[in-house]
Amino acid sequence: MPAGKNIKSSESPVEKPKFTNIVDTRPEGVTETGLAITGYEISEDGTRINTKLHYDQLYTIRHGANSPLFLGFLEGKLMATQCPNCGDKFFPPRTVCWHLDCNLAATEWVELEPVGHIHTFTIAGWSGRSSLKRLPFVLAYCIIDGCKTAIANELYGIDPWDAEFDMPVKVVFKPKEERLGAITDWHFEPGDDWTPSPMNETKERMKKLTLPVYDWVKTLKE
Amino acid sequence: MTRVCMIAGTTTPFDYGPTGFESIEEQAVMCMRDIMNDVPDFHLKDIDFVVYSHFSVHFGHQLAPEWIIHDHLGLVGVPHMRIENGGNTGGSALYAAWLAVKSGHHHVMPIIGWETMDSVSQSQGSEFIALASDMRYELMVGGIYPLFYAAMANKWMQENNVTEEDVAHIAVKNRNNAMENPKTQWYRNEHKYITVDDVLESRMMAWPIKKYDCCLMTRGMAIVIICDEEYAKQVAPDSYIVVDGIGLSSCTIRAGDRINFPGWTERYGAGYPDMTEFAACRNAAEAAYKHANITNPRKEIHVMEIHDAFSTSEAQIYKALGLVDKDNVAQFIRDGCAEIGGELPINPGGGLLGYGHPVGATGLMSLTECYYQLTGQIAKKHLSGKGQVPNAEVGLINSHAGTGTSISNFILRRP
C-alpha cells in the first residue's frame, strides 16, 4: 500500500494532486535507454582511452503553485501575478511579492493583455544544441502590459536587423492543438501598427553579421 | 585576530579535449606537486580542511566528484565540502575559506577548483550551462548565456557610447596577454596574436558579440593554499599575500527581473541596475573596498584579474568596480589604461578570454595570477616578465556568475 493512501485530505497539510489528463507528443519509437556504454576511443599511441556514455532520461517538471501560468498557455492566455498590497505585477509570476516590507504577501493571478514593447534584444547567431536550426532569430526581452519585469522570447515576423529598442510587440500563440503548456507555446511579433525604420549604419552592420547565419544553418545535418 | 593569507597557487594547463590530463585525480596531483615544489615546507599533513570549487556535475556525469579527488590525494579523515555558485564558484569558495580561517576554527586549507567541459559538444555544453538560467522560461526559447549577455550589452553599449571596436580591444588585449603563458588555452590552441579586425570579422554569436568576444569552454583545475598568517610566516615568509578585503553580493537570476527590483532601488535609486549594470559587482566592490580601506580604487589598486566571460562584460565590470563612469568608460579603453604598461593593467594573465574558463577553477586562476603579480613571480611563471606589473602591492580579483546573479570581489595585498 503506498504511503499516505488512507490519510484524509482534511488531516494533511497539503492535498495531493492526481494527474489524469496526460498528453505525450514524443515521436514513435523514442525510448529512454538510461545509461548505456556505447563505445570507446583510443589515442594513436595506444596509451589513452575514453569511454562513450549515452544517457537519456525523461524529466517531469512539476509546476505546483505556478500551474496557472502553464495552464493559461494551453488556453492562449498570459497569466501574471500581482501583489494585493503594492500593486506590482510580475510576468513571469512570483508566488509572493518581492518587497520585503510586504512580508511574503501572497500574490493574485491576473490575465495580461498580450501586448508590450522591447526593453532590449539580441540577434542569435549561435545557441544551444536544441535551438541551432531556428537560427538566426531575435531573442527579445519585452515588458508586457505594464509589468515590473521583462520576459524573454523569440521575435518573428521581422528581419532580425529591423529589431529596435522600445518597438511595440504582440504575443502570438501557436494553434491550440499544438500547445503544450510551455513558454514555447507563444512568441513575439511586431505590434500591428509598427513599420521598420529606414536602414542605417548599425542596421547594415547587423544585417552583414546575420546573413551568413542563414547559410550556416543550411549546412547542419538532418 | 589572524589575517587570512595565501601562500601558493597553480593551475593545470587549460584546454578543451583531448588535453593530456583527462582525469580529475591526475589534475589534482599535477597542481599539488607544483605547490609542494613552490613551497617545500608545506606538507599535506598540515591540511585541516579542504574547500572544493566545482560548478556542474552534468559535465562529468558524476555527483560529488570532489570525493574522488579527496580520496585519491590521501586526505581521508580531513573535513571537506564543496561550494557551487555558478561562475562565481571560485570566488565563493575563497569566501568560504576566508571565513573558515578567520573564525580561527581552521588554519590551512587548499581550495581545489575544476571543470571538465569537454565531455560534451560545445552546443550541448552551452545548454548545460544555461540550465543555470530559470530553465522554465529562458532555456527553452533558445536562451544561452552569450545571448543573455549580448542582450544586456546591446543596451549598455548604446547607453554608455561604447562601440564594437572598443570591446574588441579588450578581446585583443586579453588574448595577446595569454600568449605569454604556455598554460593558457589560447596559447595551447589558436596560438596567435590577433587584431581588432580579427574580432570584428569573427562570426556573430549574438549581436553585438562575436566569436572572439567570447571566452572558451575548458577542462582544467586550479589549486590555491589559504591559511592563517602564523602558518604563512612559517612556511612562506617571503612569498605570501593577505586577502585583505572581501565582498560578495547577489542579483536576480533573470536579468529581466532587475529593472525595478525594490532592494536595488532602495540602495541605488530607481532605474538601477536595469538590465545593463552589474549591481552585485558594484555592491560587492563597495564591501571589499570598505573592508580593505580602499577609497580610490583606480589609484590604490595596481593590478586586477577580472571575469571577462565576454569582452563586453569586462567593460561593464570596469564601471561596476567604480573605475570609470558613463562619461569616460570608452576613453579608459581607448587610452589603453587596462593594458600591460597602462595605468591599471587588467587581466595581464589573459583572463577567461585567453586563459580559459573551466568554471569551478576560473576564480582560482584569477587569484593565482594576481598572487604571482603581488609576489613578483610572473617572470618565473610566464615565458617572460613582460606581464609583470612593477612593484604591484595591491590587487583585485573578481568572480562572476549567472547574468550577474552572484559576484564577489577581493582585495589582495602584500603583507
Task: Give me some keywords for this one.
heterodimer, A: 222 residues, alpha+beta, five-stranded antiparallel sheet, three-stranded antiparallel sheet, 2 helices, flat, B: 415 residues, alpha/beta, Peroxisomal Thiolase, Chain A, domain 1, two-stranded antiparallel sheet, 18 helices, 11 strands, 17% strand, globular
Strand order of the largest sheet of chain B: 3-2-4-7-1-8-11-10-9
- Cα-to-Cα separation, first versus last residue of chain A: 48 Å
- Please give the radius of gyration of chain A in angstroms: 23 Å
Q: What profile does the largest beta sheet of chain B have?
A: 9 strands, mixed
- What is the distance, rounded to the nearest whole angstrom, between the alpha carbons of the first and last residues of chain B? 15 Å
What's the helical proportion of residues of chain B? Answer: 25-40%
How would you describe the shape of chain A?
A: flat
| Uncertain stretches of 5 or more adjacent residues of chain B | none
Mean pLDDT over all positions of chain A: 93
**Strand residue percentage of chain B:** 15-25%
User: What is the mean predicted local confidence, pLDDT of chain B?
Assistant: 97
Unreliable segments of chain A (pLDDT under 50, ≥5 consecutive)? none
- Order of H and E elements of chain A: EEHEEEEEEEEH
- In CATH, the architecture of one domain in chain B is 3-Layer(aba) Sandwich
Strand content of chain A: 25-35%
Helix/strand/pairing category of chain A: alpha+beta
Largest sheet of chain A: 5 strands, antiparallel
